[in-house]
Write a structure and sequence with these properties.
With 286 residues, this protein is of the alpha+beta class. It folds into 2 domains: 115 residues, D-amino Acid Aminotransferase, Chain A, domain 1; 160 residues, D-amino Acid Aminotransferase, subunit A, domain 2 (D-amino Acid Aminotransferase, Chain A, domain 2). The longest helix has 18 residues. The chain is globular and about 55 Å long. Bound molecules: 4'-deoxy-4'-aminopyridoxal-5'-phosphate (PMP).
Length: 286
């Protein structure tokens, strides 16, 4: 039976209960993180904590743990209780439970839910790459906050799937911002790795950040500048990143085949180096 963490106690997922007045439930008034763990070790932990802190601060939600170490202990205990070596952690913090009123409640404490889950990445996606659709970005202009309000993302992901695509890359003011569940990259005609800058129009992906770090170590050129659909027409390679899939090659964007429909060499190199980067965290090198 899967064990989750709820406001200070460990319970089976079946037994865990939360108020119908939880502000996450009523207003999407909360934030979340998805982290991966391998060999029981949480990957890119500090980067996730930095983003969680930013999201909480922007929504003026109190950081509910004594310190980062306390949270780490909870995550480690949860991994242990669930007897897992590899998988993912979902952490959600809402403003708390209170009578329904848009105004922040004066007295409440955040509701914290953490559970483990697993998802298998399709080997075909890793080997052959994925197809991406282009759609308009219908989200608000604080996409840097990892808010639990994900309706536009849910609709875009569903729309992509119904049309035979793995992901939708969203366009705002002519520029590709990011996917509905991942960050978007191209290798442009100058052989630079190009991606939208980490500002309020995208979620600053932890994987995005780490991939940039890895690319710099490989002496690859990074250009954090938004690209357009025209840049896609002339790009050499493309890929997407997220915690759950790491790096996936993008081989077709709408009708446009990228690199003749095959994962590119730079993408492959980054995939392999990124796996090493993660393995070295597991082995304690980082
Ligand atoms: N952008 C969006 C909109 C996302 O939902 C995600 C995944 N949570 C990402 C980017 C990738 O972020 P990360 O690498 O931290 O998983």
């Amino acid at each position: 039976m899967s064990i989750c963490y709820l406001n200070g106690s460990y319970q089976t997922k079946f037994d865990a209960r939360i108020s119908i007045q939880d502000r996450g439930f009523n207003f999407s008034d909360g934030v979340y993180e998805v982290m991966s763990f391998s060999n029981t070790k949480v990957i890119n932990f500090q980067k996730h904590i930095n983003r969680l802190n930013l999201s909480l601060k922007e929504l003026k939600i109190h950081y509910p743990f004594k310190n980062t170490k306390t949270l780490k202990l909870i995550l480690n205990k949860l991994i242990k209780l669930n007897k897992l070596n590899h998988g993912f952690l979902y952490l959600q913090i809402t403003r708390g439970s209170a009578s329904r009123n848009h105004l922040f409640p004066k007295i409440t404490s955040p509701n914290i839910v953490i559970f483990t889950f697993n998802t298998k990445i399709d080997d075909k996606h890793i080997i052959d790459g994925v197809k991406v659709n282009l759609t308009s970005d219908k989200r608000w202009s604080r996409c840097d906050i990892k808010s639990i309000s994900l309706l536009p993302n849910v609709l875009e992901k569903q729309n992509a799937s119904e049309n035979g695509y793995y992901e939708s890359w969203q366009i705002r003011n002519n520029y590709i911002t990011e996917g509905s569940t991942s960050n978007a990259f191209i290798i442009n005609k100058k052989n630079e790795i190009q991606t939208h800058p980490a500002n309020n129009f995208i979620l600053g992906g932890v994987t995005r950040d780490s991939v940039i770090e890895v690319a710099k170590r490989l002496d690859l050129k990074i250009r954090e500048k938004a690209f357009t659909a025209c840049d896609i027409d002339t790009c050499k390679e493309a890929f997407l990143t997220s915690t759950t899939v790491r790096i996936l090659p993008v081989v077709k964007i709408q009708k446009n085949k990228i690199n003749n429909g095959k994962p590119g060499l730079i993408t492959r190199k980054l995939m392999s180096e990124y796996n090493d980067f993660i393995n070295s965290q597991i082995n304690g090198k980082y």
